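RETRY 2/3 - previous attempt timed out on the joint model. Re-submitting the same 1012-residue input unchanged.
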Amino acid sequence: MFFLHNLERRVTLHPSYFGRNMHDLVTTKLVKDVEGTCSGDYYIIAIMDTFDLSEGRILPGSGLAEFTVRYRAVVWRPFKGEVVDAIVYTVNAHGFFAQAGPLRLFVSSHLIPDEIQYDANATPPQFTNNADMVIEPGTHVRVRIIGLRTEVGEMWAIGSINGDFLGCLQA
Amino acid sequence: MSKTIRLGNRLRYPITIVKLLKKPGDVVKRQEPLMQYSFKWMKTVGDSVRGETWEEEQTSIVNWDSPSDGDLKQWLIKEGQRIDKDGPCFNVKEACSHDIQFQGLCAICGKDMTEVNWAAEERDTARAPISMTHDLTNLTVSADQARRTENNLQERLLQSRKLSLVVDLDQTIIHACVDDTVGDWQKDPSNPNYESVKNVKSFQLDDGPAGVARSYWYYIKMRPGLEDFLKRVAEMYELHVYTMGTRAYAQSVARIVDPEQKLFGNRIISRDENQNVIAKSLQRLFPVSTNMVVIIDDRADVWPRNRHNLIKVLPYDFFKGIGDINSTFLPKRKDILPPAQPTEPVVVNGNGKSKAKDAAPENTAEEISEDTPVTQAQLEEQERELEKQMKDRPLQLLQEKQDKEDEEAAEKATVNSEDGDDTPPSSPPHQRHQVLRDDDTELEFLEQHLTQLHKAYFTEYDQQKFRRRGEDAASIPDVGPLLDNLKSKALRGVKVVLTGIIPNEISVERSEIGQQLISFGATILNRVNREVTHVVVNPQRLMTEKLKQALRIPTIKIVNPEWLAACFSQWAIADETPYLVHVDVSSWAGGRQSSNRISDAEETDDTIKGKRKDRTLRLKPKLNLVSESGETQELDDDSDDEGDSDASDGDDEDALLPDVIEDGQLSPVDGLKTFNWGSADAELDEFLASGSDDEDDDDDEGETQETEGVTDDEPTPSRKRKFEGEEGDTEGEVGTDSDRGSTAGEIAPKPWGQPKKLRRTQSIRGTSSLRNQYVSEDADVDGDGDSSLPTPQVTGDEEDVKLKDLHEAELEAELEAELLAEFNAAPDPVEVGGERDQDKG
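RETRY 2/3 succeeded.
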C-alpha cells in the first residue's frame, strides 16, 4: 500500500559545495541517497518535497556540514494479505518468482491452483492449465502476499495465486 | 501429514511423566504446555557460611511445551512412565510442513522461518536444507519435496525417453579466452588464423568481477560440430549447463551456444549458485537420485562424488596455451607430463601439442579441503589472470613464434605437405603454421558414447519394467553402473604399465590416469612382465627401468600418453601405430617419429571415426602426410604391429630395433636421393652453435639417476641384443635418420631413450642426425668387444658420460659389461637363455 510519509534524514554536504544554492544541493543529495531504497518495512518510492531544512552544522573534524532534512515521501509498504500485480521472472519446478516493483515474490506450487501445472517441456518452462493460463517469464500476474520478511535494505515475500481473480492478468 | 515430535535432549533425564495436559485431537500451539513431568535433582542445603551443607534430593515438576503447531494425533508416552533418554513423544499433524522456503520464509504458509523459539530444539529453516534450483540458492526445499520434484522429473524424462545430461562449458563444449588478438585476427583476412577464428563469437559481460572485467571481450570458440551435436543429443538427453564461470558468463555463453534457449532453457548453474568453488556436485541439482544423470566434463577432479556418472572429455584447447579461464579457483590441473625440459628445441617441439598431452591429465583428484566460498582474494586472482592474458596476448606471441619458425622452415626444402589446410606445405610440426587449428573431433566420439549409453539405459529400463510389470516402477536403473559397464569393455584385456608419467609419491591407482584406466577396464601393473600389453612412457623421460624391461618383451607395445588419451576418447583400444614410441638405437629416428606422431595423432582424430579396424582407411591420410620415404615406413609399421600380437621372433626384434628401419631400409635410402644436404648442414651448424644441450643433459641426468636409484637391482638383459641389431642396420639407419631429421625440420630430438649411452651421446654431441648416428655406430662397435670390466654403478656411469663425452667408447664398454653382468644374474633363465642363444648365433 502506498503512503505519504513524513520522514527525517541527516544529510552531509562537502565544504566545496557551500554557497548560495546549498539547499538545492542538499535536496538533490537527499533524493539521490534516499529514493528507491528500502528502509526495512517499506520502500521509499519518491520524495515529494522537503518541508523543513535545518541550518547546517559543521561537523567537527571533517568540515562537512550536516543538515537535518524533513521531507515527505511516497512510500510503499507491502502488507500481508495485500494483492499486488507483479511480473514473473523465473519459473522452476517449485513455483515461480515475480517482481512487484522492488519486491521479489515467490509463489510456490502449493499456492497455485491445482489445475495449473508445471510444464518443464515447454521452452521456457511454464505453469499452465493448458488453456488460457500460461505463467512464464514476462507474464503479468496478480498475487496475494501471504508472508513477508524484511532485512535491512531488502524485503522478500511469499505470494499466492490461489483465490478468485488472482493469477494471469492477460487472461 | 503426521510428524513425530521427540522430547528433546535438554530435559533432565531420567524424567517421569506426571500428567498429559492435552488429549489426542486437540489443537496445539507452539509453546503451549502439553504435559507435565517430574525429575529428581540434588540440592545443596544447610548453612554455607558455617560450612554445614549437605545435599538433599529434590523433585521438581515442570511443564513441557509444544515445539510445534498442529493437531495432536497421538501420545507416544503414558502418564507415570519413566523415561531415561530422549525419545518420541507424540504425533502431530502439522498445519504446514514448511517444505519450501524462500529466503527464510515458508513458501507455503508464509511464516517467517528464521524466528527462533526456545520451545523447539531445531530451527525451522533446517527443515528445508536442500537447494536444488539451478539459478537460485535462496530457495530451499525439504527432503520430501526434493524427492517429489525429482520423481516428477524422472517420470517425465522416462516418458519422453530421455536422460539428464550435465554439460560443462569451458574446454568441454567451448573454449574461451580474453585475448584481443583473436579480435584482431578476425578482422584481418590475411592472417593465417583467419579461417580458424572466423566463427569465434565474442561478448562483453555486463557484470563480472568488477572494474576491468567489464571491458573484457570474451572470445568463445565452439567445439567443431557442437551445434549438431547438441541438437542430436538433446533428443536423448535433457541438457543442463554446469560451469565454474560466473552466472553472467554462463548465460552469455549459453546465448551463443543456444540462441533460442531450446537446448538448455533455464537449466544453467554457475559458480555463483554452486556454493562451492572447487567442486561440482550432482547433488546440487539432483539431491535425491542421480540415477538418470550423465555428466560430460573435461575435468574429473571437480566431480569428487559423481565419478560414476561422468564421461570425461578430452579438453578442448583451441586457443593454445590459454587453458580454462574460469579455473583459477580450482586446484591446479596437473599435467600428465612433467614440465618440458628447459632445452630450447625440446620445448619447441613439446609446445605444439603440449596441450594434447594434457589430454589425459590431472593426476590426482587432489582433496583440498577448502570449502570456502569465493573470497575476494580469489576474485582478484582471477582478475589478475584475465588482465595478464589481455596484456600479454599469448596468442600473438605464439603466432609470432610460429611465423619465425615458418620462415626458418621455408629456407629448408621441405617435402611434407599438409592435409587439406590452406597452409603452405610444411615441416611436420605443422601446427606451427597457424597457431589455432580447428580440428577437434571429440564430439563425434562423445555423441557415439552418449547414444550408446542412452540405448543401454532404456534397454535396461524396458527389461526391468517388463520383469516387474504390475508393480509400480519403484526403482529405475542407475546410469552409473551402466556407464561403468560400457566403459569397462573399452580396454578390457589391456594390461598397462605406466612409466615416467605419474610422480612416484602418488600411487598409480589413485592418480587420475590410473582411475580412468581402471574405469575403462584396463589393468594397471606395477611391473613389466609377459602379461603386459602396453607400456605407456613419457617421451621426455625414457630412461626408466620399466621401459628397459619392456623392451625385452616383444609383445609389449610401447606407446606415448597420447595413446591413452585416444583410448579414453574413443572408448576402444586405439590403434597404437601413431602413438608407438620407437625406442630404438638411433633415437634420432625416434625423435622423428615423435614429431610424426604428433601429426598422426591429430590425423587419427580426424579420420578414425570408429573405423579403427580398417587400417587402410586410417592410413590413407597418413600417406599424404609424410614424405615419400616415410610412407613406406608407416605402412611397414602397421604390418609389424599386426604381427606383434603373435609374439613371433621377428617381433622380438621389433621391440628392440626400430622396425621402421628394419623394414623400410630401402625407402629411406631412396629418400636420401632427394635429400637436401645443405639444410642438414645448416641444421647441424645451428645446433652446434646453440649451447642449450648441456642443460638438457643435466636434467636428464637427474631424472635418470632417480629412476635408477629406485630400480637399480632389476636386471636389464635386453641390451646386448639391441646392439647387435644396430650393427646390422647401421647403414639403413644413417640414411633414414638424416633424411628424417631434415624433413622434420626439427632441431633436437627428444631423447627417445634408448640405451642410455646413445641418448647421452646425442644430447651431448648436439643434435644433427648425421653426427649422432655415426657416434652411435662407433659406440656399438666398441661396445661389443670388451665386456670384462667390473660393473660400474649406473649413476656413476652416467656422470662420467656427462663429464667426458669424448670417452664414450670406453663408457659404452663399461655399460655393456654392467649389462652383461646383470644379464647373467637375471632371474628369468629361460627367457634370458633364449636371448643369449640368439646373440651368440
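Chain B has a mean pLDDT of 68. Closing ticket.
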